[in-house]
């Protein structure tokens, strides 16, 4: 066996030796190769470097020669370049004149073609030539040649009127034959016989009129619309054929709702609004069946015939409102009634008739400064009158749901609920306004009303502060909490989040514009654009410092997380102060009744064995606990559950600290006194709060732990006190003390407080 092991070991050693020798041979061959080949490669590289250096030198000499030649040539041709430059500029100017004149000639030629077509009654050819002029205008409308643009525009208007008059007469006759507009009359109209032929003629004329559509910029200037409408973003002219279809309706509208007609009454805007809605309803079917296919065939599939006609009718209403506005702003009752009716009208056409929200509507007119300023003043005036009426009501501080257990949980006074309903109504009125700036102005009005109402609540609270447990004080507290709670809920609504985003973005733009370092930063950025690529790191650092200073100058405009954040914090602060005031009032009353209890001779009470049969609530504590119970019952009946929970939890902290500092620390306790105090606390005080919490003892930790230390068996108390004394010499035993205190159920009292409690036990005196 030994021989076999020796043989195997020898074989392993020989194999290892052979591997090592092979590796050594391989390394020696590589080393030899490196010694022979590397020097030759180095010499080859050096020769390449030398030749490259020579080439660079030759190129530098050649470059210098070429540079001198270029400089010499530049000096020679410089006079000629100046002459040629002036010639080129002159040629370009002449070219512009030629192009200008050719454009004028082209327009005159097209005008001649249109005239010739009209003389031969070739309307189609005339319309095609007219489209050529509009195409030229679209190319030139942004040109600086204002006279040329004006000439083209006047030419377009001239021929448009002639062509439109030629076609419009026939188009209106066809529409009249088809019984357009579809209005209700008492006279029965004869039946249309040749409907197919009339529709075919209407289609041809409709398409020709579409070709006569003026560019938007020209059409708006010559539309004759009310000046207020031109201030509204998104106002565009109607398609020409639909504008002609709207013409008889406009005539009827102006006949009935302008001038001295009885139907034109400022206090009855619902009359013309209802008429517009009926026209939209009556003509929708005709438009979808007869006009929409014509628009589709003409390549106008993006245009809805019913929407286009609705837009024209809505613009009629907008003009009517703009016409009546100067008189309405001096009549608050009629103006308020107009706003209500317009809000209903806008909601009707948007929801029932699918009028797109991106298109201008009647609310755009009310968002203009001419109407919005009066609206805000009127809204504020009516709101203030409503608030005065709320607070003067005999039942303003009573809950509307008093006596209904399920609904009266929050105990909101009538005035607070009415006030928030008022704010909600204001929100509903301005929520659909299309202009965000107008919405922000209404939001500002709401914030002003909230602050005014808060100040009124503060005044009432101060008047009732002599009785913080009274009905008025508690009703104000309920109102404050309810308003803060509702504002928090509103702050999470999409509508107010969108307003917050818009407000923050606008504030950021304003702050950036007004920042004193903005001009410096702009100058720096402009300079950096023209700087060379080899800008130094120090210059980059300076630019970063300037940017940091600019950003530091901009105020922190994005710290606001909700639009009601500031006013909500004021209401919450008021709520906290009122709860503290109520707690302080109750605590002072309880403390005033506690003097006999604090002066009890805890050191002279009978031994625990004698107290066991007669143990009960200390007679000196009866009045104190009875007053506390009465106050708790009163506050529970007058405060909402949330507020009452905050109230009694804050009150327990005061009472807990009071018992420790005013009852325990100033007295000495024998065994009977400690037992009596523990009974008063654990069997009488803590159960008073048992109806409000499943674990009321957790709110009296200081008192309960003090009683635990006072009633701790003497042996355990002595051992623990010794541990306290040793702590003064050996600080490493701090953890042992905390562990020992936790073992007996003491978690809140500090070791110093525990040591002081032990010093109050007479049975531990040395």
Automatic annotation (TrEMBL):
It comes from the Eukaryota. GO terms for biological process: endoplasmic reticulum to Golgi vesicle-mediated transport; regulation of ER to Golgi vesicle-mediated transport; retrograde vesicle-mediated transport, Golgi to endoplasmic reticulum. Residues 513-539 have a biased composition (Polar residues). GO terms for cellular component: Dsl1/NZR complex. InterPro entries: EXOC6PINT-1/Sec15/Tip20_C_dom2, RINT1_Tip20, Tip20p_domB. Residues 513-540 are annotated as: Disordered. Belongs to the RINT1 family. This is RAD50-interacting protein 1.
